[in-house]
Write a structure and sequence with these properties.
Number of helices: 29
Largest sheet: 8 strands, parallel
Helix content: 25-40%
Shape: globular
Radius of gyration: 31 Å
Structural class: alpha/beta
Distance between the termini: 50 Å
Strand content: 15-25%
Length: 904
């Protein structure tokens, strides 16, 4: 059999098209230019390969080397199905950014649009010459696609008897086989919508008639993929709720939310008409066995689930409930607490699991589904379990301090795990977590909802991933985020940054495994800090605050550029902390007199040094400028010094002041090249430069951040994100917030990723608030996130800003109420529900704010995280149980009505 593949695509000069796929195709096959509208390749198929499914895609190669792959998972052919000698396929390019593609992702195919499937039986002619295929994702139940045209086989445009197309379960496209012998090519045709139940023609598609250019030949069959039916923009919209699993409260809970509680949450969400549940990361974070492990974005494994979410009763089963009864007093105590007691919950749960494991291990490990689970997850499960064992054996997660196995060796670890019950214990726990989360996901689906997860941008530097594959990370650097309104000194997350060049060598296998693991449980996911795929804020190990980081990768400033712009380059002045008496006064403010009195000694010339009991942080330099002594030259040295001396008065103020002195620089030097410090103009170092130098540096600063990097960062992202998108059919949402390069929205659109629109974080610098009514369709709108105060909390933070919002954005006259009354919360919620965005998602606390009797009295207790506090205790819990929420008929009816009114 001979196969001809043709793609309809109008290229520009310098562009070429390639075929990519597996056997029997080469990895890449160049297509030949056919005419101004199409390219094609002719491929002889070896005997015996006709029954093999062919999966393929097209690749556009641009003149600048950039590559784009067309989208979709439906380019699958079994040549033998067409019973011919010459198989011709005419394809349409499917741009990943077409919004219709979103409706072929897992949440829509498997849940949200599954009920719309309409079975239509079509009768194929005995000897068809053509197969037509087309997609239309948002047809209502009872509707199908029909075909009309100027030929007899197409009904002569008769809407009373159009040709109906059918769709098989699981397929994306509608199709029909036709015998077009005797027709004069080319001919015109169009698709339309037909109501099967009413047996009536609904409408034609929009746009000009389609034209089919082909010819009939003996033994030839032509398959036409016509892309999407052209209809007016059809925008499905839904609403969801966001809540961390640990924040859920149920009557039978153990002081923390569990995977099993997602079933109750889904029951409530179904009752009010929500369609999505969004969670924070649920991976194991157990590095220190203390409350600091409550931070969900510092996983010790990108694959393992957190034991805290395990329901002990389900593990125990009916036969072992007596064992669990001994924990009932502690369960009641913990469940009555206002917030999560992380350490007590973990202690109780792990203690019980270690008791029951010896009683259940033999039967569990014999189960067929356990063996399947172990085989599918072995690549991460064995290293993770061994890591946990060694962490506990040596009393630290820092594998660099282990006296043995500090470097991962697969053979040694396999031998260590053999017959080791302390390692097998973690297999047991992860298996039960897997079962319970799968059961919860199935229940969510049965309620007509989808589950959205969260992929953290980083992993713990003292975790199983970094131990097992340290070559994938830059262990000497720290990832973070640049300064913003919520963290003015930036964020330093402490995670190692990724070694992207090494990851590219195996096709980003680690990331693909992460995505596949997410796909076991979730329908959609949020990529935390998607900007990290373009560039990441990278700080040296000696920095504590993110303000001392620079973007990696980035095009640096060469020393020669300063001279080219007429700037006298002074490495010492630009890269070292600028410290004078005036700077000390500025930093310590009204406390400067106390600082001088308690901590400084006078030296000749009116220069001060810190008193001996603070070991003289400062020493004088010529010209009245101070420098920090070598032992206090970095923030990490200062941090360690004060951590060892908690008894000294005012140590926090002094420490922060010294941090500010150290970061009072203009340039950051790395490998002999230079990067501008964020917010350079706000430093006293910059303010003390001559005006002419300030102007020239400011221009170079703007060039560095806003001009030279954009194309470079776009290329970086496009080397990673398209390949990762292709390994999953989950709906992908990117957290595109903060210091957003101009190329990011463009890349997000091209890939069909949903962006995040937060009212308090406008992407337009000319706005104080973003407007939900102006959000793009492929986006998620929300009034708040876990890193912010709730609507009610924000209302009380800045009275002047609230007043502006009240008058201008809500369009209400007069003075804004001092407290955020339920009607104000409802006004904000309505704004988001009315948005054109695909999804409007609300923190559950914000939804509860609609009801004056139901919402929490203490608004500050609603907050989940404060990014400006590095070691924050993530312990927020709902103040009412999910069972109580299900019984709140007045609130539930009101919320359901809001959703109905806004078509969500």
């Amino acid at each position: 059999m001979n196969l001809t593949l043709r793609i309809r695509f109008a290229t520009r000069t310098g562009q070429s098209l390639w075929l990519i796929g597996g056997k029997p195709f080469p990895d890449r096959l160049p297509l030949q230019f056919l005419d101004s509208e199409s390219w094609q390749a002719k491929i002889p198929l070896a005997a015996g390969t006709e029954k093999t499914p062919l999966n393929y895609s097209y690749l556009l190669h641009n003149a600048d080397g950039a590559q784009t792959t067309d989208w979709g998972r439906d380019r699958v052919l079994v040549p033998a199905d067409f019973d011919c000698d010459e198989l011709h396929v005419i394809d349409s390019w499917n741009d990943a950014g077409f919004f219709e593609n979103a409706f072929y992702t897992a949440p829509f195919k498997n849940v949200l649009l599954a009920e719309n499937f309409t079975e239509v039986k079509t009768v194929a002619p005995r000897t068809p010459t053509h197969t037509l295929r087309v997609k239309s994702p948002l047809l209502a139940k009872g509707q199908t696609i029909c075909l009309l045209g100027e030929a007899a086989a197409l009904g002569h445009w008769n809407t009373q008897s159009p040709v109906l197309l059918g769709r098989k379960p699981g397929e994306d496209y509608f199709s029909v086989q036709l015998d077009l012998r005797g027709l004069a090519f080319p001919f015109a045709y169009k698709y339309g919508i037909y109501d099967v139940a009413k047996k009536t023609f609904v409408r034609y598609e929009d746009g000009a008639n389609r034209i089919l250019k082909d010819e009939i030949a003996p033994g030839k069959h032509t398959v036409i993929h016509d892309g999407f039916v052209v209809l007016p923009p059809q925008h499905w919209s839904g609403a969801g709720v966001a809540i961390p699993v640990f924040s859920l409260r149920s009557e039978t809970g153990f002081g923390v939310g569990e995977f099993a509680d997602l079933k109750l949450l889904a029951d409530w969400a179904k009752k009010v008409g929500l369609k999505l549940i969004q969670l924070l990361p649920i991976n194991d974070t157990s590095a220190t066995h203390c409350w600091k492990d409550s931070y969900p974005y510092a996983a010790i494994s990108a694959f393992a689930l957190h034991p805290i979410y395990l329901n002990l009763a389900a593990v125990a089963g009916a036969k072992k409930q007596k064992l669990l009864a001994t924990l009932e007093p502690e369960r009641r105590r913990l469940n009555a607490l206002e917030t999560v007691d992380y350490e007590a919950v973990m202690s109780a749960k792990l203690g019980f699991l270690k008791t029951i494991f010896p009683l259940q291990k033999t039967a569990t490990f014999r189960r067929r589904d356990y063996k399947v689970f172990f085989a599918e997850n072995r690549h991460w499960l064995v290293p993770y379990a061994a890591f946990c064992f060694l962490r506990d054996k040596f009393g630290t997660a820092d594998f660099n301090q282990w006296p043995e196995h500090e470097k991962f060796d697969a053979q040694q670890i396999a031998a260590l795990a053999e017959g080791n019950d302390k390692i097998a214990f973690h297999f047991f726990v992860q298996y039960h977590l897997h079962l319970q989360l799968k059961a919860a996901t199935a229940h969510v689906h049965s309620a007509g909802l989808v589950l959205k997860g969260d992929i953290a941008i980083g992993v713990n530097r003292h975790g199983a991933d970094a131990w097992q594959q340290p070559e994938l990370f830059h262990m000497d650097m720290q990832a973070g985020a640049p300064p913003d309104a919520f963290a003015v000194k930036g964020q330093n997350w402490g995670f190692p940054t990724y070694n992207w060049s090494r990851m590219a060598e195996d096709g980003f296998a680690w990331w693909k495994q992460r995505f596949a693991q997410m796909g076991n449980y979730f329908d959609a996911f949020r990529i935390d800090h998607i900007l990290g795929f373009f560039r990441i804020l990278s700080s040296p190990a000696h920095a504590v605050e993110g303000i001392l980081g620079h973007f990696v990768p980035a095009i640096p400033v060469e020393q020669s550029e300063f001279a080219a712009r007429g700037i006298a380059f002074d490495r010492e002045r630009f890269t070292k902390p600028f410290i004078t008496d005036a700077v000390l006064q500025e930093i310590f403010g009204s406390g400067s007199r106390m600082v001088h009195h308690d901590f400084l000694d006078a030296r000749a010339g009116g220069i001060y040094t810190l008193k001996p009991h603070y070991r003289n942080f400062l020493e004088a330099s010529p010209g009245g400028i101070y420098s920090l002594k070598p032992e206090f030259a970095t923030q990490r040295q200062v941090e360690n010094y004060f951590a060892a001396r908690p008894q000294f008065p005012h140590n926090v103020e002094i420490k922060i002041g010294l941090f500010d002195l150290i970061s009072n620089v203009i340039l950051l030097e790395a490998d002999g090249k230079f990067h501008f410090r964020f917010a350079m103009e706000q430093t006293s170092s910059f303010e003390n430069l001559p005006p002419d130098t300030q102007t020239k540096l400011r221009d170079l600063y703007v060039d560095y951040f806003f001009r030279r990097q954009d194309h470079f960062w776009r290329r970086e992202a496009m080397q990673k994100l398209p390949a990762l998108k292709r390994v999953t059919n989950m709906l992908i949402c990117g957290e595109d917030l903060g210091f957003v390069p101009a190329c990011v929205p463009e890349v997000m659109r091209e890939l069909g990723f949903l962006g995040l629109e937060i009212q308090r974080m406008p992407k337009n610098p000319g706005q104080e608030f973003s407007r939900p009514a102006e959000a793009p369709y492929l986006s998620v709108v929300t009034p708040s996130t876990h890193d912010m105060s709730t609507i009610r909390g924000w209302w009380a933070e800045d009275r002047a800003l609230t007043q502006k919002f009240f008058n201008r954005d809500l369009g209400l006259p007069g003075e804004a109420p001092l407290e955020c009354e339920p009607r104000m919360v409802e006004a904000v919620v309505r704004q988001h529900l009315a948005s054109p965005a695909m999804w409007s998602i609300f923190q559950l606390q914000d939804l509860l704010g609609l009801d004056g009797h139901l919402r929490r009295a203490d608004v500050d207790a609603e907050r989940i995280n404060v990014p400006a506090i590095p070691n924050y205790y993530w312990r927020y819990r709902l103040h009412l149980t999910l069972e109580e929420l299900l019984r709140e008929e007045r609130f539930n009816s009101h919320l359901a009505q809001l959703l109905r009114e806004n078509g969500r």
